[in-house]
């Protein structure tokens, strides 16, 4: 990569960055190729540069993301105040502090990384993140690790903290996704809900734990970024399967003296907002969930037991099946990675902790 001297463009000093696409970047498109090669560059900054016609591919101005090939030359011109050099991934204390506040590395090897993402961090580029010029988790990690090839294996909502897997190559990503679909990598969450759920059928997981399993159908309204749960299938619906067990009960913690429960939840299917919408559908919304929860209920907790800033949901455990016997992920067979939830609320002492039923 070459960083060239600035020039004046419409009264603003511009910085020129040029990269040559190598074999390592061949499977990339313009935006990830640039964010992975220019330290600290955010996707939102590239989108803005594209709209300004300040990105060139082989000397030709382009206005949209597109594929790149070995030997291609990319030039991007950025306003000097937005120049990313020195952000995320250098040795400055400010950069180190910002990255550390976004995530922590739980495990890494030559195939993948497992991170503990902080709640409030956007995982990947969204229209809102681009509009707000907001850095994403994947941008930060690629820059910190100096590895533009890193890809997400799954996603977490902005306001859901916890464990997330990144693969170093597309091949590893495909393996991880397949293992998740086969149930050989289990994703488990912890959350606080209103009331005490009892719905579902008892099942036993591969590692011997007993859960309730609930099933329904999900309708996604992409434009509203919202989903609806139905008991009977409707056109366009997809099936959803969610498992849960009660970890702790907090009797009398709710506004009407009702119980609040901490659940451990396992996703069999991994749909958008599945946990939040499915639990709300059976009458047990997450505390702090402004979309699927109850605003009057959430208001009761704000300022009483702590600041309730977001839904109380965390991806706390990844369990790798002992049946993973081949390939580079076999080293993780039988292993589990776990982090504690960072709830906003100051919880009282629980009445019960259940390991089964």
What does this structure look like?
The chain has eight helices and 17 strands. It is of the alpha+beta class. It folds into three domains: 2-82, Structural Genomics Hypothetical 15.5 Kd Protein In mrcA-pckA Intergenic Region, Chain A (Roll); 93-170, Pseudouridine synthase; 184-338, Pseudouridine synthase, CATH 3.30.2350.10. Strands 6, 7, 8, 9, 10, 11, 12, 13, 14, 15, 16 and 17 form a twelve-stranded mixed sheet that branches. It has a five-stranded antiparallel sheet with strand order 1-2-5-3-4. The protein is globular, with a radius of gyration of 23 Å.
CATH topology of the largest domain: Pseudouridine synthase
Structural class label: alpha+beta
Cα(first) to Cα(last) distance is 59 Å
Mean pLDDT: 83
Search tags:
19% helix, alpha+beta, five-stranded antiparallel sheet, twelve-stranded mixed sheet, Pseudouridine synthase, single chain, Structural Genomics Hypothetical 15.5 Kd Protein In mrcA-pckA Intergenic Region, Chain A, 357 residues
Summarize the topology.
Blueprint: E1 2-9, E2 12-20, H1 30-37, H2 43-51, E3 55-57, E4 60-62, E5 73-79, H3 93-102, E6 103-108, E7 112-117, H4 127-131, H5 137-145, E8 151-152, E9 161-167, H6 170-181, E10 185-194, E11 201-204, E12 210-221, E13 226-230, E14 238-250, E15 260-267, H7 274-281, H8 295-301, E16 313-320, E17 336-338
Question: In a nutshell, what does this entry contain?
Answer:
With 357 residues, the protein is of the alpha+beta class. The chain contains 8 helices and 17 strands.
């Amino acid at each position: 990569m070459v960083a060239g001297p600035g020039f004046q463009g419409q009264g603003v000093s511009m910085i020129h960055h040029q990269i040559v696409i190598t074999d390592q970047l061949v499977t990339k498109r313009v935006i990830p190729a640039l964010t992975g090669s220019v330290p600290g560059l955010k996707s939102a900054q590239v989108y803005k540069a594209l709209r300004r016609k300040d990105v060139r591919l082989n000397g030709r101005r382009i206005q949209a993301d597109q594929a790149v090939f070995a030997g291609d030359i990319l030039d991007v011109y950025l306003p000097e105040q937005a120049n990313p050099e020195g952000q995320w991934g250098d040795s400055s204390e400010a950069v180190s502090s910002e990255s550390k506040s976004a995530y922590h590395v739980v495990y890494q090897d030559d195939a993948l990384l497992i991170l503990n993402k902080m709640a409030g961090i956007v995982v990947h580029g969204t229209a809102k993140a681009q509009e707000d010029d907001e850095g994403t988790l994947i941008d930060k990690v690629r820059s910190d690790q100096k590895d533009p090839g890193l890809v997400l294996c799954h996603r977490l909502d902005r306001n859901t903290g916890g464990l997330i897997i990144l693969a170093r190559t597309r091949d590893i990503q495909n393996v991880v996704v397949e293992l998740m679909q086969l149930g050989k990598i289990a994703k488990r969450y912890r959350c606080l809900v209103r009331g005490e759920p009892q719905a579902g059928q008892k099942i036993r997981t591969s590692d011997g734990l007993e859960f309730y399993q609930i099933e329904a159908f999900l309708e996604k309204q992409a434009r509203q970024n919202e989903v609806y749960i139905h008991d009977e299938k409707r056109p366009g619906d997809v099936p959803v399967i969610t498992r849960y067990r009660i970890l702790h009960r907090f009797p009398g913690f709710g506004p009407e003296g009702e119980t609040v429960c901490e659940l451990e939840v396992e996703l069999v299917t991994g749909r958008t907002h599945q946990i939040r919408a499915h639990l709300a559908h059976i009458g047990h919304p997450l505390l702090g969930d402004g979309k699927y929860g109850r605003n009057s209920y959430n208001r009761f907790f704000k300022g009483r037991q702590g600041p309730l800033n977001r839904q109380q949901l965390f991806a706390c455990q990844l369990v790798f099946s002992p049946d993973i016997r081949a390939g580079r992920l076999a080293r993780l067979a039988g292993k589990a990675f776990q982090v504690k939830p960072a709830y906003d609320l100051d919880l009282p002492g629980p009445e019960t902790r259940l390991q089964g039923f």
